[in-house]
Structures are given as structure tokens and as C-alpha cells.
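Structure ticket #2291
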Amino acid sequence: MLSLPASGPYGRIARMSGAALALRRGLSLAAVEDLRLAIDEALILLLGHGDQDGSVDLEFLLDPNAISIEFVPNFAEGPPDLSSEAVERFVELASPLLTTFDIDSDSGVVRLHKSGS
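Resolution: structure written out below.
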């Protein structure tokens, strides 16, 4: 678990944490780079065009040669309003990078899964 302020500059910590854990699970460097980019896109989706008052909590689930990350927005104003354009952008950019993903538009929770080499 990792709880970060809902602010863009903290995205680096999320990327570094995800990459380090993915390397430890045996993912290739190319797969790790894909995951780093997908983490960026998930944070862009949740934060929109600016910082939020609150946090983004990340839960990392590790399997042999795989990693899943759940992003849970805990914003003072409630769940983010995920516009169809923002979701479409995420799907277009992140889907080729991931094994699977899920977006709960009501809660704003985003789940990423990356496996293999």
C-alpha cells in the first residue's frame, strides 16, 4: 500500500514504486517501461488537469511474473468526474501497454495488470 498526495509531482514516486516491484517480480525492462507509462496515464486520468485536495492510494498486488495496481482516489470533493474523453484517452494510450485494466467510473478506482516479459 502507498498513499500519495493527489498532486502531479508525486506521480514519480508511484512510477518508481511500480517499476521496482515489477522488476522484482521478473518483468522485462520493456514490460516495466510499459507499466511506468500506464501508471502515468492512470494518474492523468484521476487528477485531470490539476492537483486535488486529498490522496491517491495505491495497492500493489504481486504474483510471480506479474503485478496489479489499484488506484483509489480519496479526494475531499468525492470521486473524480471521469469524462468520456479522458477515459477514451486512457484506453487508447494505456490499453496496448497492459495485460488488462478496469475503470470504475462511479468510484474512480482504476486497476492495472501487467504480466509477462
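Closing remark: The mean pLDDT is 95.
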